[in-house]
Amino acid sequence: AQSVTQPDIHITVSEGASLELRCNYSYGATPYLFWYVQSPGQGLQLLLKYFSGDTLVQGIKGFEAEFKRSQSSFNLRKPSVHWSDAAEYFCASGLGANNLFFGTGTRLTVIP
Amino acid sequence: GAGVSQSPRYKVAKRGQDVALRCDPISGHVSLFWYQQALGQGPEFLTYFQNEAQLDKSGLPSDRFFAERPEGSVSTLKIQRTQQEDSAVYLCASSLGPGSDLYEQYFGPGTRLTVT
Fold this sequence. Notes:
The structure holds 2 protein chains of 2 kinds. Chain A is mainly β. Chain A has strands at residues 3-5, 10-14, 19-21, 24-26, 32-38, 44-50, 56-58, 64-68, 73-78, 87-94, 100-102, 106-111. In chain A, strand 5 (32-38) and strand 6 form a beta hairpin. By secondary structure, chain B is mainly beta. Chain B is globular. The termini of chain B are far apart. Classes of the chains: A mainly beta, B mainly beta. The A-B interface holds A 4, 32, 36, 41-46, 49, 51, 90, 92, 94, 96-105 and B 3-4, 31, 33, 35, 40-45, 48, 56, 59, 91, 93, 95, 97-100, 103-110.
């Protein structure tokens, strides 16, 4: 069965520091992989997605993620965090046009 | 253009009441999904439509949950005889469809259901 694991429930970083949020997926084939961000009271916004090809994908708001097949990982990174990045981040996997499987999320706190 | 909209944004129901949650997908989007997000959890799949056809309802937690999309656009998720464990945010998402190489789901703001 497909599953997504986000091992970090809560991460705190200082503004301007670098960020890495971890995501591991479990599935035999390589699924489509996504990172979404959810701010309080807001819907999920897609940051980036990986279907195939180049394993380093660029997204919106300065985020990037790297797909590593050997580690079944798709970690999200940002070189310099802004206070407005504080939110809940969800990694998700999917197969084609079917439903997505989400991780439990990582809450990011940014301190001045 | 307009995104996915959901109504109501908040709903409080007494245990045992029926509720209906509405989703207006992006115009022209073929696929529509419903997810349930419990507090502190990630969204969990409920059901999926392709146009008016409900192709997958494997995530519906009980027969009290029912979804429809009769004309292939607006969808309604109905919960009968609500229970406290139904309290959650219900998210709707739409996408261009299975034939799109840009497969991406666009999410609405959700309906927060509280059952008292």
